Amino acid sequence: MNLEFNKNEDINKQLVYELKTRLDKVYQGGGAKSAAKQKEKGKMLARERISYLLDKDSEVLEIGTFAAYEMYESEGGCPSAGVVCVIGYVSGKQCIIVANDATVKAGAWFPMTAKKNLRAQEIAMENRLPIIYLVDSAGVYLPMQDEIFPDKEHFGRIFRNNAVMSSMGIVQISAIMGACVAGGAYLPIMSDEAMIVEGTGSVFLAGSYLVKSAIGEDVDNETLGGATTHCEISGVTDYKQPNDQACLDSIKKIMSMIGGSQQAGFDRIKPVMPKLDEKEIYGILPENREKPYDMKEIIYRLVDHSEFEEYKALYGQSIICGLARIDGWAVGIVANQRKVVKSKKGEMQFGGVIYSDSADKASRFIMNCNQKKIPLVFLQDVTGFMVGSRSEQGGIIKDGAKMVNAMANSVVPKFTIVIGNSYGAGNYAMCGKAYDPRLIYAWPSAKIAVMGGAQAAKVLLQIQEASSKAKGEALTEEQEDKLLNEITEKYNKQTTPYYAASRLWVDGIIDPLETRKVISMGIEAANKAPIEKPYNVGVIQT
């Protein structure tokens, strides 16, 4: 192996190590002291509950681990947005589990908590997956109620989704394993079945303090909304369980009896590992995001037997399209080529840039995959569409619109992996978050922004200089340099995958070696939702 390969390998392995270190910290939730308090009450922690519920050999895919990462610091932080969401297998059935983490502000709902819960429900609805809620929450975090309570995508949307999922026939099971207060009380009670743990579980619209201040009644929380009240008097809950383990065992039993779902019919054969070593990805991917590399070398290390049937290989080469299998599933891959290529017309095309011919090719390939009922995988390392008079006169906007149209209206499931750059309209055309990928994950090497840091910083500096001039103030060279460094540092922080994951622009950050698992579990989930909508692209720009 050459020196460049070894250098890349060291840098990328360091990024993965940093990822794992950050994950370990997030997994601690609200910390050891908060965890000890939960244990004193005889409760299992959120991640322990999930682990107990899942089948022993279950593959697990976590959604939104870094949600709210480095946010709400003045409030003491909110690791994982105070809720743990995973896709896994319970009694052999693939499902989503959503568990409040009571070690984080007693499981209170921050704005990102609502966003993460809605994302979990969206995945359940798109893929018709059963969803299990392990409820242990003090309700809305009152100091931020204006950011979580009234809007369309706020707290109330959760219960709207409960109702919609019920009408769709999606199984919802809830376990009340701690506090369940106010509007949050509707979540378990709008599920198909709700169980409650004796002694620790409680559910009520208003707690004892609020009842006292509202109507003057003196009553304790257990009498107000404990297991005995709701299982023997009100009939609000369906099963009373003595402890967390018994409650989770009951869920396993119910899940074991759920009937099978209809299938979408995506093709799968026996999985085969790539022939080329997956770990070589670390050495192939340059540590410098501007450097060229051959994306096909990445693809060969992600697909079964390293076999890739390339579509229009010699045309529109700045986007690679082709058919392959990932963990046995047939997929159509749309990827940005990062090496410089030369078209037959003699034009040199920069890697990572979308040109008219590549947009045209990708549009046709996406339409073909919809025709053949083949799920789409987008591998993003894109700096945007080509600019300049030659491209504009060649109709780049028209060809870009065609690609966006073909991709946005796709009825086969789409999965997006952000490998490197994800800039501007390139993010859109390559199925960024706004275009409904069933799952979207980033590698630690990802950068997500409207444009690259260096270009953006210079533009922002020019704006700042113009503003200073308008006030009659001229910046010295030293001030300019200082300002440019400050702008660049701030902008670069906003382009990291952690910044994106914290705001759920991506579902998570993964080691590149987990890519096959993400796509495979995603297609397995998507296969439970038959395609009901015909593929119709509307008016295509020609």
Mean of pLDDT: 90
Rounded to the nearest angstrom, the radius of gyration is 25 Å
Q: SS-based structural class?
A: alpha/beta
- So how many helices? 20
Biggest sheet overview: 8 strands, mixed
How many E-type strands?
A: 20
Strand content: 15-25%
Distance between the termini: 46 Å
Level of helix content?
A: 25-40%
Shape: globular
**Which stretches are poorly predicted, pLDDT < 50 over at least 5 residues?**
none
Domain CoA carboxyltransferase N-terminal: 12-270
Protein name: Acyl-CoA carboxylase subunit beta
Domain CoA carboxyltransferase C-terminal: 275-533
Pfam families: Carboxyl_trans
Question: Can you give a write-up of this model?
Answer:
- The chain is α/β, with parallel strands linked by helices and 542 residues long.
- Helices cover 39% and strands 18% of the residues.
- The chain is built from 20 helices and 20 strands.
- The strands form four sheets. Strands 1, 2, 3, 4, 5, 6, 7 and 8 form an eight-stranded mixed beta sheet that branches.
- Helix 4 runs parallel beside helix 5 (156-168) and helix 13 packs parallel to helix 15 (396-408).
- The longest helix has 25 residues, at 3-27.
- The protein is globular.
- 46% of the residues are buried.
